[in-house]
Amino acid sequence: MKYTKMHGLGNDFIFFTDPNGTDTDYTELAKQLCHRQTGIGGDGIIVVVPSNVADTRMRIINADGSEAEMCGNGIRCFAKYVYERGIVTKEKFTIETLAGIMEPTLTVEDGKVTLVTVNMGKPSFNAADIPMDIKADKVLNYDVDVDGVTYKVSSVLMGVPHTEVFVDDVTKVPLTTLGPKLERHPLFPRGTNVNFVKVVDDSHIKVRTWERGAGATLACGTGCCASAVMAHENGLTGREVDVAVYLGTLHISYSEDGTVFMTGPAAEVFETELA
């Protein structure tokens, strides 16, 4: 099989196409391919499969074998992958995901995709949708206890569950210890992605993410969207925000009607063939 390694601002994935992969269990394959020492290495695998309701369908399986509903960086890479291989020939099209139908719009130069803007839909703030084991129409600055320390969290469903913790310095966050404890906190029955957010000014934030099922990643597209949304909901920023991650910046637009648009790059690293 041919595999393609791609990344969106460092969030890396292994791509392939499977016309018969609608219901295939990729759990063990994802674990093997994503292993950083004995496989190709990646935060997940993304499989292009046929769709009956959209132009194409994206399945994403995390490095631990769990299947995710959506992935912001992954869907930009997906859009570039299917367009440059002729699977989809339109510069605006639809992608079926477990989080619903997503609509990317491509910026193309000399046949190559340079930027992808994705209509990410509208976030849900209700605790039951995220889901969280509390009753609340909107979760803002909610007190969560971790090992005797209280953290104020804001949570939202942005295709997948995200929890934001606003901090003074994202570089000093104990990401690999606090991240998994919040991810698996009893408050979140299905787990949560965790974003540590530094507000720089009205239109700039910095984000570090611990991803559910993948661990510490260099970037998280849905996490950047969720962070921008919750920064605005907390009265800390406007509706247009540049989100800085390790390897670059995503632009997030949170429109008046609640729709979120994400614009950023996607890159192909290499293609390989494995037995």
From TrEMBL:
The record marks 162, 211 as: Could be important to modulate the pK values of the two catalytic cysteine residues. Substrate binds at residues 11, 62, 72-73, 193, 211-212, 221-222. Keywords: Amino-acid biosynthesis, Cytoplasm, Isomerase, Lysine biosynthesis. It comes from the Bacteria. Pathway: Amino-acid biosynthesis; L-lysine biosynthesis via DAP pathway; DL-2,6-diaminopimelate from LL-2,6-diaminopimelate: step 1/1. The gene is dapF. Catalyzes the stereoinversion of LL-2,6-diaminopimelate (L,L-DAP) to meso-diaminopimelate (meso-DAP), a precursor of L-lysine and an essential component of the bacterial peptidoglycan. SUPFAM superfamilies: Diaminopimelate epimerase-like (SSF54506). It is found in: Cytoplasm. This is Diaminopimelate epimerase. NCBIfam families: DapF. Its main location: cytoplasm. InterPro entries: DAP_epimerase_AS, DAP_epimerase_DapF. It holds the Pfam family DAP_epimerase. The keyword S-adenosyl-L-methionine does not apply. Homodimer.
